[in-house]
């Protein structure tokens, strides 16, 4: 196998014999898409293996590299109306399609932030996905935008989800690791709204205050709002969220009114 870090051809093993880097597992075949995680779990990317004539769709700008025989086309997903829907989810207006021409090929895809990548086989079901977590999918996977109602607004996740349906593999990404939680019938599960990656579209949920004892206890807990899901179904969670990171970094940067004791970018870099 080839080491994704140094490119050396080495025997299959936990680490590369040439550079010592961890080696990715064998490609996973889910549906018609063969792919594997490269780069480690903290800075994961997806290496998609394409047979001759096979294609994969991805978020515009997600491509790291590709074989020389891959044809790349970018187009407005779903035409003008589809592009307008994607604009309200803060996604790129364009979707890229990579097609292997004349032989097998590979495409490396990565999300814009460090974190995890997982593949989900839809098998005819529909998922609701937070707007930043779609990385790529089979061409047969249908992408649409679904109104989340004011539950999404109150949860801080926005008014719209990406709805994935059909058959094939969807590649999801996150900031932090992705944890899958299957829920049996009747089970209830509570998730901080900033940690939701995706969930079954048919699964009922409600956004409520974190503590049932009132708003004061909810706010003091640091959680405020949570989403409560009712099984059966599945939920995918991310172990970190960018809002918390931004809150942790904010005191280190000067405000518009002055430094107020914070560190500037030059201070952080040692300038």
Write up this protein.
InterPro entries: AIM24, AIM24_sf, Trp_RNA-bd_attenuator-like_dom. This is TIGR00266 family protein. The structure is a single chain. The chain is mostly beta strands and 271 residues long. 13% of the residues lie in helices and 39% in strands. The chain is built from five helices and 20 strands. The strands form four sheets. Strands 6-7-4-11-14-9 form a six-stranded antiparallel sheet. A six-stranded antiparallel sheet has the order 12-13-10-17-20-15. A hairpin with a 6-residue loop joins strand 2 and strand 3 (45-50). The longest helix is centred in the N-terminal third of the chain and has 10 residues, at 79-88. The relative contact order is 0.13.
Low-confidence stretches: none
Order of strands side by side in the largest beta sheet? 6-7-4-11-14-9
Largest sheet: 6 strands, antiparallel
Radius of gyration using CA atoms only: 21 Å
Q: Cα distance, first to last residue?
A: 44 Å
Features:
271 residues; mainly beta; 6-stranded antiparallel β-sheet; 5 helices
């Amino acid at each position: 196998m080839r080491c994704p870090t140094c490119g050396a051809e080495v025997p299959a093993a936990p680490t590369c014999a040439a550079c010592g880097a961890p080696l990715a597992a064998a490609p996973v075949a889910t549906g018609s898409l063969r792919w594997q995680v490269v780069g480690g779990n903290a800075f994961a990317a997806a290496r998609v293996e394409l047979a001759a004539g096979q294609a994969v769709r991805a978020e515009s700008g997600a491509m790291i590299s590709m074989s020389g025989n891959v044809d790349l086309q970018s187009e407005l997903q779903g035409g003008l109306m589809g592009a307008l829907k994607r604009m309200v989810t803060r996604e790129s207006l364009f979707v890229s399609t990579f097609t292997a021409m004349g032989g097998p090929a590979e495409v490396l895809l990565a999300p814009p932030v460090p974190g995890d990548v997982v593949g989900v086989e839809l098998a005819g079901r529909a998922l609701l996905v937070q707007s930043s977590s779609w990385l790529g999918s089979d061409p047969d996977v249908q992408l649409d935008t679904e109104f989340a109602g004011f539950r999404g607004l109150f949860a801080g996740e926005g008014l719209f989800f990406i709805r994935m349906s059909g058959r094939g593999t969807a590649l999801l990404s996150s900031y932090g690791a992705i944890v899958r939680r299957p829920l049996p019938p009747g089970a209830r599960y509570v998730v901080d709204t900033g940690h939701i990656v995706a969930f079954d579209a048919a699964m009922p949920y409600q956004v409520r205050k974190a503590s049932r004892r009132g708003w004061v206890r909810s706010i003091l807990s640091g959680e405020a709002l949570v989403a409560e899901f009712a099984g059966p179904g599945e939920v995918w969670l991310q172990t970190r969220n960018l809002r918390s990171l931004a809150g942790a970094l904010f005191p280190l940067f000067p405000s518009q009114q002055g430094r107020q004791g914070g560190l500037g970018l030059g201070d952080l870099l040692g300038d």
